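Quick one, T. Sequence first:
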Amino acid sequence: MVKKVNDLADAKAAKVAVVDFSAVWCGPCKMLGPVMEQISEEMPEAEFYNIDVDEAQKEAEEFSVMSIPLLVVLKDGKEVARQVGFQPKDSVKAFIQDAMNK
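Structure tokens:
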């Protein structure tokens, strides 16, 4: 399950968190949403979050979000990887798995 949040306190506290920065007006973000839901069900070892950059501008600035959708993988609160743009499910899942192994 992907949790919709307005701040990243829980994500930073998680052992492994995948944060999807998006916006309601963003077409590729809308395409990525269902992909992230599927992956979250297949990867219980990570926590998944979605944050709207228009509603959480402080977090968007903190992570220097320039383009969306943006996926950021955090391990113990530290960024270990990021990926911009829509990718197919297999590519996104491989990106997350690679990041978790860093």
